[in-house]
């Protein structure tokens, strides 16, 4: 039985949240028309209960027993399969309902289908209005199949003649297609009305789902033919159907397990890829990541005839910070510089740590003037850092940027600052390596002329601000607030 369960694709996700009072008027009208038509046909068939023979009641009892045993045994497995399925859910109950449509009078086929739906409601756990519409679709498909078989006038027993027997095969195949198509198309039309933005193909299920449903109907045909000769047919088939249901459950479990493993592997691969390109101290790109992403950005800008600015950044006297306060303090400074670069740069820019206290920034679609202004903002932010960390003796210290005002009456000697060299493509070369070389040369010029400044490659000097003349050469550059 194709029970259209909502989950997975766009259309099914929308239907999962069906609310009776939020449905469009066209959808409500369609539901009422279908349910009313099915109810009227079912009531008409039920009026014929008084004409049913004893042999039919015996077959009916066997079908009801088989349905009950089947659904009670596979209860938990069906719950799990429904939770894992995406889109239509095939629950194998078509074996019983389609066999009933073939071998039983219409009234008994209606009762068997209603009993099956009553038993399956606790498994499906759906809202009443959704369950009623699905039940109407399934019951309507069963009654249509019954009408095709019993109104065709063909004999359900073997005649020994080729043409009538082949005619019976054709009628049964037609009934199976009508049963399958009526249910699927009815649900698909309803979902299309509720979610008109989705394609109707999304509601018809996958090829594997529909092949399983047709196979289930085929088993229902064989059971129905068996029931016409002996009432014990359902009792013989109930345990094979339970076994198939169990195999489907274990296959679904295995598939879900493999899908989880695949997702975990993809997530692990993504993390490993990220780790391979990321500097763990600063959160910026490492040398490998910088080379890959910066070259990619440079090639894209060159293809679009757009400039690229490269910044070479070096922290001034960083070795003295490590020697004076210890490596934990130096690592804290590096981490704070990484945060500043991520904060000051645009999403499309590339920033990485190029070893030690050196950083490289590649600015996409950025000319010399704008790149120099960005470099100055970065230099100012580094010079205004205040990093709370611990020294080599595990005492709490605060390292301050050299641009911050002095504390108390101490001489204004800053601990943290940066020198920056700026180069731009294509003015300073054709490739990223050319611009990096020129930016490094400008960086060395900034170092030689007092540090804590921005310099542009090719001898063009931008002192922002002018180098400090009171910077000591042989003493540690630190402004420290120490607490025990």
UniProtKB/TrEMBL annotation:
Annotated PROSITE patterns: GGDEF
Superkingdom of this protein's organism: Bacteria
UniProt key word Transport: no
Keywords: Membrane, Transmembrane, Transmembrane helix
Residue ranges crossing the lipid bilayer per the database entry: 27-45, 57-75, 95-119, 131-149, 169-191, 211-229
Coiled-coil intervals: none
Pfam families: GGDEF
CDD domains, A to Z: GGDEF
SUPFAM superfamilies associated with the record: Nucleotide cyclase (SSF55073)
Residue ranges constituting the GGDEF domain according to the UniProt record: 306-459
InterPro entries, per database record: Diguanylate_Cyclase, GGDEF_dom, Nucleotide_cyclase, Rev_trsase/Diguanyl_cyclase
PANTHER family: DIGUANYLATE CYCLASE DGCM-RELATED, REGULATORY COMPONENTS OF SENSORY TRANSDUCTION SYSTEM
Name of the protein in its database record: GGDEF domain-containing protein
Organism encoding this protein: Saccharothrix lopnurensis
């Amino acid at each position: 039985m194709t029970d259209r369960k909502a989950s997975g694709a766009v259309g099914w996700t929308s239907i999962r949240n069906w609310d009776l009072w939020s449905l469009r008027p066209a959808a409500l009208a369609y539901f009422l028309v279908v349910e009313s038509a099915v109810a009227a046909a079912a009531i008409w068939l039920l009026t014929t209960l008084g004409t049913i023979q004893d042999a039919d009641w015996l077959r009916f009892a066997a079908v009801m027993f088989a349905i009950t045993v089947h659904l009670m045994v596979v209860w938990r497995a069906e719950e799990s399969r429904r939770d894992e399925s995406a889109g239509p859910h095939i629950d194998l109950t078509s074996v019983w309902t389609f066999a009933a449509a073939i071998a039983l009078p219409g009234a008994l086929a209606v009762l068997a289908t209603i009993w099956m739906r009553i038993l399956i409601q606790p498994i499906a756990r759906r809202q009443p209005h959704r369950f009623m519409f699905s039940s109407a679709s399934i019951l309507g498909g069963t009654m249509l199949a019954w009408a095709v078989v019993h109104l065709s006038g063909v004999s359900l027993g073997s005649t020994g003649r080729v043409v009538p027997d082949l005619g019976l095969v054709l009628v049964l195949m037609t009934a199976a297609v009508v049963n399958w198509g009526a249910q699927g198309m009815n649900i698909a039309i309803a979902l299309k009305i509720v979610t008109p933005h989705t394609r109707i193909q999304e509601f018809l299920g996958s090829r594997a789902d529909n092949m399983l449903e047709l196979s289930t109907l085929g088993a229902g045909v064989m059971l129905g033919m068996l029931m016409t000769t002996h009432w014990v047919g359902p009792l013989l088939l109930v345990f094979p159907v339970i076994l198939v249901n169990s195999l489907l459950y274990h296959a679904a479990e295995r598939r879900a397990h493999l899908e989880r493993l695949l997702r975990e592997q993809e997530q692990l691969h993504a993390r490993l890829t990220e780790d391979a390109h990321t500097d763990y101290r600063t959160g910026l790109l490492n040398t490998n990541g910088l080379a890959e992403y910066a070259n990619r950005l440079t090639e894209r800008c060159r293809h679009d005839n757009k400039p690229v600015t490269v910044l070479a950044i070096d922290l001034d006297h960083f070795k003295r910070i490590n020697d004076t306060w210890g490596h934990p303090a130096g690592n804290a400074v590096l981490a704070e510089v990484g945060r500043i670069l991520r904060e000051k740069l645009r999403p499309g820019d590339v920033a990485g740590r190029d070893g030690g206290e050196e950083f490289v920034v590649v600015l996409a679609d950025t000319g010399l003037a704008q790149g120099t202004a960005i470099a100055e903002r970065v230099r100012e932010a580094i010079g205004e850092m205040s990093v709370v960390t611990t020294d080599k003796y595990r005492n709490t210290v605060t390292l301050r940027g050299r641009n911050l005002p002095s504390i108390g009456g101490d001489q204004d000697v800053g601990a943290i600052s940066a020198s920056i060299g700026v180069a731009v493509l294509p003015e300073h070369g054709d490739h990223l390596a050319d611009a990096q070389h020129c930016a490094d040369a400008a960086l060395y010029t900034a170092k030689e002329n007092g540090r804590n400044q921005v310099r542009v490659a090719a001898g063009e000097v931008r002192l922002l601000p002018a180098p400090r003349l009171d910077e000591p050469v042989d003493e540690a550059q630190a402004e420290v607030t120490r607490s025990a």
